[in-house]
Specification:
InterPro entries: PBP/GOBP, PBP_GOBP_sf. With about 130 residues, this protein is an all-alpha fold. The protein contains six helices and no strands. The chain has a single domain, classed as Recoverin, domain 1, CATH 1.10.238.20. The chain is about 65% helix and about 0% strand. The protein is globular and about 40 Å long.
């Protein structure tokens, strides 16, 4: 019985790692797609200094592009709380922390672009670097 339990744990762990790796690959493709479009292209230095470039329209366009393509926001800019929660859960196992992060970070701002930037920055501030590393 113990062997079956250990084997099940190994399989669950491997699936979790492969799911996260698949998501990271997906995010890279999405980033590249957004970068390949002149309307959503942004210099990487601006992204690495996101907090200093909050009002840059190219930064906003890029962040919204990524947020919509990954499913965090809908085409109209509205947040998709169920998707946000599921994506956070990929890298945060504590359900209470996931719920807190959704409440604190998934907040609609004046524009869809500002909403996307705020979401990414808030999650990053709390150590959830799955989405982007700034």
């Amino acid at each position: 019985m113990r062997t079956v339990f250990v084997f099940a744990c190994v399989i669950v762990g491997a699936l979790a790692v492969s799911t996260l790796e698949a998501e990271e690959d997906k995010l890279k493709r999405i980033h590249d797609e957004c970068q390949s479009n002149p309307a959503t292209y942004v210099d990487h230095e601006l992204l690495h200094n996101l907090s200093q470039n909050l009002d840059n329209p190219q930064v906003g366009a890029h962040m919204l592009c990524e947020s919509v393509k990954v499913g965090l926001q809908k085409e109209n800019g509205d947040l998709d709380l169920a998707v946000i929660k599921s994506k956070i859960s990929l890298s945060v196992s504590d359900k209470a922390k996931v719920d807190r992060l959704v409440r604190e970070c998934a907040v609609k701002k004046n524009t869809a672009e500002k909403t996307a930037i705020n979401l990414f920055m808030c999650l990053d501030k709390d150590g959830v670097t799955y989405f982007h590393e700034f």
